[in-house]
Write a structure and sequence with these properties.
By secondary structure, this protein is α/β, with parallel strands linked by helices. The protein has three domains: about 5-60, OB fold (Dihydrolipoamide Acetyltransferase, E2P) (Beta Barrel), CATH 2.40.50.140; about 105-120 and about 200-360, Vaccinia Virus protein VP39 (Rossmann fold, 3-Layer(aba) Sandwich); about 130-185, no CATH class. The protein has eight helices and 17 strands. It has helices at about 90-100, 160-175, 205-215, 230-235, 250-260, 270-280, 300-310, 320-330, and strands at about 5-15, 20-25, 30, 40-50, 50-60, 115, 130-135, 140, 150, 180-185, 220-225, 240-245, 265-270, 285-290, 315-320, 335-345, 355-360. It has an eight-stranded mixed β-sheet, with helices on both faces. It has a five-stranded mixed beta barrel with strand order 1-2-3-5-4. A four-stranded antiparallel β-sheet has the order 9-8-7-10, covered by helices on one side. The longest helix has 15 residues, at about 90-100. The protein binds S-adenosylmethionine. S-adenosylmethionine binds near residues 195, 197, 229, 271 and 272. InterPro entries: NA-bd_OB-fold, SAM-dependent_MTases_sf, TRAM_dom, U5_MeTrfase_fam. It holds the Pfam family TRAM.
Amino acid sequence: MKIGQQSVVTIEKIVYGGEGIGKLEEGLVIFVPFSAPKEKLRVIIREIKKNYVKGTIKEIFEKGKGRVLPACPAYGSCGGCAYQHLDYETELEIKQAQIEEIFSCFKKNHPLSIQNIIHSPFPYGYRNRISLHVSNGKVGFYAKSSNRIVPIRSCLIASEKINVLLKKWLDQKRQYVGPKTMHFSLREPEIPSYGFYQVNRYLLQKMRELVDETIGREISQIIEGYSGAGFFTEYLRLRMEKIYAIEENHLSVEHAKTLGLKNVFFIEGKVEDKLADCQSQIETAKAAYLFDPPKEGISKEVISLVNSHPLPKLIYVSCNPLTLKRDIQRLEKNYLLRTLRPVDLFPKTSEIECIALLTRKNGI
Ligand SMILES: C[S@@+](CC[C@H](N)C(=O)[O-])C[C@H]1O[C@@H](n2cnc3c(N)ncnc32)[C@H](O)[C@@H]1O
């Protein structure tokens, strides 16, 4: 096998991350980006690894399920989207199957029910914020796994308001000539101008309702880790006795405090440092953890604190199924995984949001 060699392959499925996989005649597994399920392709080998190869499409012999023409001229070079070449129905089926596969390992020892993916009402125009990079007169997004800037004029997954702002900024930013790449972000005026904020403007209320439903009515106290600017806190406090909300980003905490929520303690700092204090103040029998960490997941330190003080429920909102799986495995001795709800917060990209419900094992 050589780089540049051509081969014929049928794509078996699309795996998490967005690439199709198939087997070459030699028995080697091949990963092919921008392919569709069951598609028959001629591919060019681009990279050879120990146990697999990577290829790109040279020719499509038989189109796979759901293939459509991508709408964005930067698709394929910009690192943002992975599923513009598929219709939305196929993308949702693929994402559901990926979640089923990643979490199938829990089926044996947990009463796990994987629910149907919640779709975004629209797969385009949903982002309420974008981050761009500027260097040597180029303004755009990074190419996949690279610092190379792919210039763009507009972004189809961003909202109309963001695209209006982008148009205004493009010519100004292009003037920038500096030794380093500069980064800037554009946000809709409705959302806080700093720190993390949920990105899909069509699913904001739905996310809050789903988390509320998952928590359940018997819970009246919450320890919320990674609470950001109080996105879930603001909604949940309407029916909670009290919430301890821990967040390390100073500006997000400042914003959260401006909401004036009476039954909420906003605590600035790392969950690692503040959790034990909250654990000592909560009434265990009616309390739950709500965690919404960044894609790296929860640190071993936090997992160990949770394992030393398991509350009846733990609700885990995650934007990375792989770290979610890892963290559930680390919590397994105290918790059962009950439900997993995929949510398509990031249509056309390979990302999948999940809401997991874990309940404390009996007899702890
Ligand atoms: C995915 S965001 C979720 C924010 C919020 N739940 C929301 O929906 O807007 C993760 C948040 O965790 C915060 N964070 C990351 N690591 C942290 C840590 N070790 N301790 C406390 N906060 C942390 C980040 O600043 C960010 O606001």
